[in-house]
């Protein structure tokens, strides 16, 4: 059937006759010839022209209509391509040639409101049913030609086609509904529903569009899936031939189906399908709202939840339909991550596959078969069911929109998303090209040996046969591959992911047998009693368990996978301890059992944490809901700075006014972000600097929010604190939080306390708040400080936000909680000890407006940079170091990385001494961060390269060990017992070192290099 550009499709005599009949010049004829040769039926346009020309005397208007279209270049293309590619469209032109001038004079796409008015007015203008049905069919075919020809010609996108066809369907339904309700009311009277208060009101009825119709994704030959609902059954019609409301709407629904899909001389409007209604074909055709709600809440299946994703009120009482769908949201979208839906959807797909295979259509069905449309739709719907309860933005009807939203929320990577979207459009276009040929509801590709049909289909696709078949094959393989990977992790089923042999045997063997102990020992388990208890838990389920039958099935699936992962953990004993506690907690959150089964990636992240870090493990044991975050591919993205974190916390708190809830959300934010950093840290995705900077940013933003909430609450009660400045102006007094220590230096670690100083700028007389319940500024700021401390340290369900240390404020614990700025300055200039100026080298404003931050920052800089006597400074710094050492001197049985000679404190005191001693001549040495300060000191020539490298390497290693100790102990810990081989071995694994002895050897070597440098600079000359 293939043609080339030189092959004549019509002889010269016929050509001349047609050119004369339609007054076509050579240019127009050449274009018709070129277009015809590209179509599936190249002779069809000529045959249609000849048919019209032959009836010229009988039907002059038909010739005039076609003539006008062929003379217009745009419509010439639409007519030739439409007629040449589709028997269906050719039949429309033949039956209603006057459509061409009508459509030429009409806008496209049609204005939805105008189209609705035109069709409703036309259909409702007649009381004759046959005439109403005829008018509906004429409107349908007119718009189908306008859409079909344009899509075949490549003038509109797939989405424009499906949206326009869906719009037409809902308008036709509305016209049928209004016509039939009027007609039935004339016979039986208006249906009146009895209300709760005993009064009566006109009964309400709505039609829900389901599937592709609900999603505005209709094909050229789609059934429209419908559900009929009416308000109540209680009531009757008002006419002399009175019937019950239920019977009225069942009759209306039955007649509506006939009016829409009964074939006539004008064809049909749309085929209708009501099998998706509650109880399917055995249920009533129209259902009262309460019965429908009860059905879904009590008996609704997963497939019905999936169907409701696309549901949309399309005709009748739209507001009632919207309210009904709103009431079903808890049924469709569960509050938790609903992985149980995935198994049901997977089974639905298997049933479809078996059915299609039995019909020998699996390889040919572009909708239901291999790599077909349904695989993309099932993936999107499964993820919407799983995550839509937590993320309302995912509750969309359109498939492509759903895929893009899944990408935005991290459940689908960019490449797969774009591939699925492009392939979905391609497959839907193929489906359209199959159906537009004869308006048949088929999704089957031609058989392999039907070359003629393959050639025709490829031409309707605008491609040559070889290219089309290669493209189609590639697309279907891509879709099926991604579907299998996303649904089954690349396996044909989840069960194909085989367990390790040890786990398999341990799940079967006698727990009290020597063989069981042998297997546990071989896996590295030292605590055999705990190992046997863990096996019992996995086999029998959690104690106090009241799991449902379904949840128990999920637990039984999960148990061997947990065991397999635990045996591969870096520390199986630690992993067993945490996994056991975690599984015991899951009886209170059983929906997470399905998540862990269906998301092996989550389990692969979780168990290594259980085998490495009690601190991070506690997050999951206390709050299993944190697992929701592990599903997102964005969760482990790198640290993106304070602005992103601030934006995320602000978004969480939007429209939340309750103080207790806000406190819990701040703690949730902190825990989630610390967990994110911890996982990146353990996984080698973040270095130490990123981890400490991230932990510092989390603390800073949490402090900001606690301050903002406390300030707002007090200001609403008492007004803002005001003062009179030196110019006599009333201005607002300011507040700032000064971070000291590790937070000040952006070096916060896990479980670190926050060293803080609170400052306010209020001074002078008339220092009162400006509210109705005015208090003095001192009272206001004292209350503010107390609220901030409570907000940070209060123990809630989410744990304590941070421990605070306020001892660095002027006069320590005996001083006021909030220091006046003037008093703080005077204290630092006249009373502060040298160690307090050492502390200032790491100070920074973390809460406060920009002007206050600059004011405080400049003052601190000036204090640090003032000239000092080096000998006096050296003696003061060393004396304080010795005092601390004597107070906290570690025993010989431990290594204290912080207090030992040559440890962290030696490095930090040396840095602070060099900054305070030389900042007046080398201001560039002033840095709050220890590593950056060391580099600046080296560049200033105050350390040689060997000294700088020794101190820098030692400090980084000390902070790494400190970091790992806190991950191990879930608390601030700086000591390692020399005889604790287990802790040393765990440290070695976390630091990627050979063994525990290497940890001790490296620590002692670094300390041996640091101490002489400390003594060189800080010990008095002998």
UniProtKB/TrEMBL annotation:
It is an enzyme of class 2 (transferase). Pfam families: GlnD_UR_UTase (PF08335), GlnE (PF03710). Residues 346-487, 880-1016 form the PII-uridylyltransferase/Glutamine-synthetase adenylyltransferase domain. The keyword Phosphoprotein does not apply. GO terms for cellular component: cytosol. Residues 1-491 are annotated as: Adenylyl removase. Its EC number is 2.7.7.89, 2.7.7.42. Its cofactor is Mg(2+). GO terms for biological process: regulation of glutamine family amino acid metabolic process. Residues 83-325, 604-852 form the Glutamate-ammonia ligase adenylyltransferase repeated domain. SUPFAM superfamilies: Nucleotidyltransferase, Nucleotidyltransferase substrate binding subunit/domain. GO terms for molecular function: [glutamate-ammonia-ligase] adenylyltransferase activity; [glutamine synthetase]-adenylyl-L-tyrosine phosphorylase activity; ATP binding; ligase activity; magnesium ion binding. The keyword Magnesium applies. It comes from the Bacteria. It catalyses: [glutamine synthetase]-O(4)-(5'-adenylyl)-L-tyrosine + phosphate = [glutamine synthetase]-L-tyrosine + ADP; [glutamine synthetase]-L-tyrosine + ATP = [glutamine synthetase]-O(4)-(5'-adenylyl)-L-tyrosine + diphosphate. Keywords: ATP-binding, Ligase, Magnesium, Multifunctional enzyme, Nucleotide-binding, Nucleotidyltransferase, Transferase. Residues 500-1022 are annotated as: Adenylyl transferase. PANTHER family: BIFUNCTIONAL GLUTAMINE SYNTHETASE ADENYLYLTRANSFERASE_ADENYLYL-REMOVING ENZYME (PTHR30621:SF0), GLUTAMINE SYNTHETASE ADENYLYLTRANSFERASE (PTHR30621). Involved in the regulation of glutamine synthetase GlnA, a key enzyme in the process to assimilate ammonia. When cellular nitrogen levels are high, the C-terminal adenylyl transferase (AT) inactivates GlnA by covalent transfer of an adenylyl group from ATP to specific tyrosine residue of GlnA, thus reducing its activity. Conversely, when nitrogen levels are low, the N-terminal adenylyl removase (AR) activates GlnA by removing the adenylyl group by phosphorolysis, increasing its activity. Belongs to the GlnE family. This is Bifunctional glutamine synthetase adenylyltransferase/adenylyl-removing enzyme. It comes from Magnetofaba australis IT-1.
């Amino acid at each position: 059937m293939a043609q080339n550009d030189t092959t004549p499709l019509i002889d010269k005599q016929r050509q001349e006759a047609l050119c004369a009949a339609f007054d076509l010049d050579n240019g127009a004829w050449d274009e018709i010839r070129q277009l015809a040769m590209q179509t599936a039926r190249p002779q069809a346009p000529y045959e249609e022209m000849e048919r019209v020309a032959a009836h010229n005397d009988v039907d002059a208007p038909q010739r005039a209509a076609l003539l006008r279209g062929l003379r217009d270049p745009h419509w010439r293309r639409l007519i030739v391509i439409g007629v040449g590619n589709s028997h269906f469209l050719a039949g429309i032109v033949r039956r209603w040639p006057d459509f061409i001038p009508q459509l030429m004079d009409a806008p496209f796409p049609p204005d939805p409101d105008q189209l609705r008015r035109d069709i409703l007015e036309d259909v409702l203008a007649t009381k004759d049913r046959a005439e109403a049905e005829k008018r509906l069919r004429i409107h349908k075919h007119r718009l189908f030609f306008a859409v079909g020809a344009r899509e075949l010609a490549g003038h509109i996108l797939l989405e424009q086609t499906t949206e326009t066809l869906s719009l037409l369907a809902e308008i036709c339904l509305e016209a049928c509904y209004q016509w039939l309700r009027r007609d039935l009311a004339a016979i039986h009277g208006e249906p009146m529903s009895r209300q709760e208060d005993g009064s009566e009101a006109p009964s309400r009825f709505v039609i829900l569009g389901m599937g592709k119709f609900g999603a505005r994704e209709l094909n050229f030959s789609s059934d429209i899936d419908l559900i009929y609902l009416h308000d109540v059954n209680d009531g009757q019609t008002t006419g002399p031939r009175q019937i019950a409301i239920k019977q009225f709407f069942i009759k209306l629904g039955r007649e509506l189906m006939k009016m829409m899909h009964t074939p006539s001389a004008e064809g049909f409007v749309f085929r209708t399908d009501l099998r998706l209604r509650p109880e399917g074909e055995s249920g009533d055709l129209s259902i009262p709202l309460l019965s429908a709600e009860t059905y879904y809440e009590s008996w609704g299946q997963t497939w019905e939840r999936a169907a409701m994703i696309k549901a949309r009120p399309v005709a009748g009482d739209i507001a009632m339909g919207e309210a009904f769908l709103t009431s079903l949201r808890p049924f469709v979208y569960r509050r938790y991550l609903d992985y149980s839906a995935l198994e049901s959807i997977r089974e639905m797909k298997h049933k479809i596959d078996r059915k299609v295979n039995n019909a020998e259509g699996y390889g040919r069905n572009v909708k239901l078969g291999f790599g077909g449309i349904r695989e993309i739709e099932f993936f999107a719907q499964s993820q919407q069911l799983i995550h839509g309860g937590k993320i309302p933005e995912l509750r969309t009807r359109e498939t492509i929109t759903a895929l893009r939203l899944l990408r935005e929320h991290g459940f689908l990577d960019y490449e797969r998303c774009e591939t699925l979207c492009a392939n979905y459009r391609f497959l839907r276009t193929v489906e359209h090209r199959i159906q537009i040929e004869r308006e048949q509801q088929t999704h089957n590709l031609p058989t392999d040996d039907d070359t003629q049909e393959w050639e025709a289909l490829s031409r309707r696709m605008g491609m040559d046969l070889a290219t089309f078949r290669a493209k189609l094959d590639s697309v279907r393989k891509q879709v099926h591959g991604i579907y299998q990977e996303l649904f089954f992790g690349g396996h044909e089923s989840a069960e194909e992911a085989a367990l390790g042999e040890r786990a398999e045997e341990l799940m079967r063997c006698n727990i009290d047998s020597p063989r069981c102990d042998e297997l546990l020992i071989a896996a590295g388990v030292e605590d055999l009693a705990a190992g046997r208890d863990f096996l019992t838990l996995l086999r029998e389920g959690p104690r106090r368990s009241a799991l449902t039958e379904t949840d128990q099935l999920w637990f039984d699936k999960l148990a061997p996978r947990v065991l397999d992962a635990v045996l591969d953990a870096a520390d199986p004993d630690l992993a067993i301890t945490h996994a056991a506690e975690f599984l015991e907690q899951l009886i209170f959150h059983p929906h997470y059992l399905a998540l862990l089964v269906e998301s092996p990636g989550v389990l692969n992240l979780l168990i290594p944490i259980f085998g490495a870090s009690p601190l991070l493990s506690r997050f999951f044991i206390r709050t299993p809901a944190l697992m929701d975050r592990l599903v997102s591919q964005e969760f482990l993205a790198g640290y993106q700075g304070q602005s992103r974190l601030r934006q995320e916390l602000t978004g969480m708190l939007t429209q939340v006014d309750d103080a207790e809830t806000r406190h819990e959300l701040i703690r949730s934010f902190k825990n989630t972000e610390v967990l994110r950093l911890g996982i990146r840290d353990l996984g080698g995705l973040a270095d130490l600097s990123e981890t400490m900077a991230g932990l510092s940013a989390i603390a800073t933003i949490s402090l900001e929010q606690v301050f903002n909430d406390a300030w707002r609450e007090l200001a609403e009660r008492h007004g803002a604190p005001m003062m009179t400045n030196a110019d006599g102006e009333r201005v607002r007094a300011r507040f700032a939080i000064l971070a000291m220590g590790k937070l000040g230096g952006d070096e916060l670690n896990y479980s670190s306390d926050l060293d803080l100083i609170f400052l306010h700028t209020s001074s002078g007389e008339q220092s009162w708040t400006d509210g109705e319940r005015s208090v003095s500024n001192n009272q206001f700021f004292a209350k503010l400080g107390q609220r901030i401390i409570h907000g940070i340290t209060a123990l809630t369900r989410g744990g304590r936000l941070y421990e605070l240390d306020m001892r660095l404020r002027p006069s320590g614990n005996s001083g006021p909680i909030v220091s006046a700025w003037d008093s703080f300055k005077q204290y630092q200039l006249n009373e502060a000890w040298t160690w307090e100026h050492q502390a200032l080298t790491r100070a920074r404003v973390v809460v406060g407006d920009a002007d206050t931050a600059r004011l405080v920052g400049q003052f601190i800089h000036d204090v640090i940079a003032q000239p000092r006597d080096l000998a006096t400074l050296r003696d003061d710094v060393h004396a304080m170091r010795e005092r601390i050492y004597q107070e906290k001197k570690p025993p010989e049985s431990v290594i204290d990385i912080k207090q030992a000679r040559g440890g962290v404190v030696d490095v930090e005191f040396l840095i602070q001494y060099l900054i305070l001693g030389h900042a007046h001549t080398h201001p560039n040495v002033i840095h709050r961060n220890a590593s950056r300060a060391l580099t600046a000191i080296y560049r200033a020539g105050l350390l040689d390269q060997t000294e700088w490298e020794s101190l820098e390497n030692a400090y980084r290693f000390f902070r790494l060990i400190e970091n790992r100790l806190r991950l191990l102990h879930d608390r601030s810990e700086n000591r390692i017992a020399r005889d604790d081989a287990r802790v040393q071995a765990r440290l070695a694994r976390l630091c990627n070192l050979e063994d525990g002895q290497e940890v001790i050897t490296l620590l002692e070597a670094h300390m041996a290099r640091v101490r002489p440098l400390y003594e060189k600079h800080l010990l008095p000359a002998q």
